[in-house]
Design a protein that fits this description.
about 375 residues, Dihydrodipicolinate Reductase, domain 2, globular, Rossmann fold, 2 domains, 11 helices, about 40% helix, 6-stranded parallel β-sheet
Length: about 375
């Protein structure tokens, strides 16, 4: 890795690609607080107004309208790709420049994209921040010494994004991206959706892109960290009819016969985001309660309930260590030392396949048309 323009040789010069909510509310504030590890070298966004505003806010002089322009100029040690949608093409472009990549979920929309990235041989860290949450790490260590798991139950109550982000004072959305660029992006996304799902109806596409890859992959990553990936799905339900974003119920099987139940609810007027993961075994229950991911340093609560001398004992673990920040520290090691990262191409690919299998289960139940990769997932 090249030395940073200022500071020590291990200070990573990073370019931020995509200046939406997660960049403004999470990554930029945390990166700016860690000048010992990172130098904010450049920002990239399709919106010139947003690029100017955010660049000025953080004193970043290098501002670009595309990742290609940033990569052509060079002089960064890594990029963080925080755009919405599939990240397969952007990660591939960064690989071609020979630099490591951090990218937010999902890695991609299709298995083909993930396989192409694996063949390219680059290094990418996929942003499942909950894997760096101290409560999740502690829960995993506790479960390793307990009896076989009987059931995992996940509940997510998801209010509107504005409700979760009111405290963050984000830059107002700019309406200055040319229509032809937006049309090209929409066409590319549609082609990827068709490759993943064939000529599936719009409700299946919205479920796949907007709910499963857009949110539920975080829950799948936590289940994998605590137990393992699901091996099959038996029932999927989406309601109310004709509503997006909806409620989603997913029932599946985990290795060794344990059951998985996920309830994901978009509730626009709900007062707060809440996510609960409960793992039940013959000894008791290990549960995690997550606050809104945009409330930095709000603790995740780990609670263990089990028997004790004929009664019930409850122990609670909390930590204000920020999972997003721990993830960025791990990414610094990933870049400077070549260390491992909690999730990469293999995990991103697994979650693409899992989400396609969930869609296929629903399509079969409702006798809806489905093709593409999901037909054989």
């Amino acid at each position: 890795m090249a030395a940073a323009t200022t500071g020590g040789a291990d200070r990573v010069r990073i370019g931020i690609v995509g200046l939406g909510a997660v960049a403004q509310a999470v990554h930029l504030p945390l990166l700016s607080r860690r000048p010992d590890l990172f130098a904010l070298e450049a920002v990239v966004d399709l919106s010139p107004a947003t690029t100017r505003l955010v660049g000025a806010r953080y004193g970043i002089a290098r501002r670009y309208g595309s990742l290609a322009a940033l990569l052509a100029d060079g002089d960064v040690d890594a990029v963080a790709i925080l755009t919405s949608g599939s990240h397969g093409s952007a990660v591939a472009d960064a690989f071609a420049s020979g630099i490591p990549v951090f990218c937010e979920k999902p890695l991609a929309y299709t298995v083909a994209e993930a396989d192409a990235l694996a063949a390219a041989g680059g290094r990418v860290a996929v942003g499942y921040m909950k894997l760096y949450d101290p409560a999740v790490i502690h829960a995993r260590s506790l479960l390793a010494g307990r009896p076989p798991i009987r059931s995992v139950e996940v509940t997510v109550l998801h209010p509107s994004s504005p409700a979760q982000l009111a405290h963050a004072h984000l830059a107002a959305p700019a309406d200055d991206v040319p229509d032809e660029i937006l049309a090209t992006l929409a066409s590319e996304a549609q082609q990827l959706e068709e490759r993943a799902l064939g000529s599936a109806p719009p409700e299946l596409r919205r479920l796949y892109v907007g709910v499963l890859l857009g949110s539920v992959v975080h829950e799948l990553a936590v289940v994998r960290a605590l137990v393992d990936d699901p091996v099959s799905f038996e029932h999927v339900d989406v309601w109310p009819d004709g509503r997006f974003l909806p409620s989603v119920a997913i029932h599946g099987r985990l290795p060794d016969g344990a059951r998985l139940a996920i309830r994901w609810h978009y509730l626009e007027g709900h007062p707060a985001y809440r996510e609960e993961v409960r793992v039940h075994d013959e000894r008791g229950t290990v549960s995690l309660t997550f606050p809104s991911p945009y409330l930095l340093h709000a603790p995740t609560e780990l609670m263990v309930v089990e028997g004790d001398a004929g009664g019930e004992r409850t122990t609670v673990f909390r930590s204000t260590a920020e999972a997003f920040e721990e993830e960025l520290v791990a990414f610094h090691r990933f870049v400077t030392e070549g260390g491992d990262f909690a999730a990469g191409i293999a995990e991103g690919r697994t979650d693409i396949v899992t989400c396609q299998r969930i869609v296929r289960c629903l399509a079969e139940q409702r006798r809806l048309e489905l093709g593409g990769e999901a037909a054989a997932a």
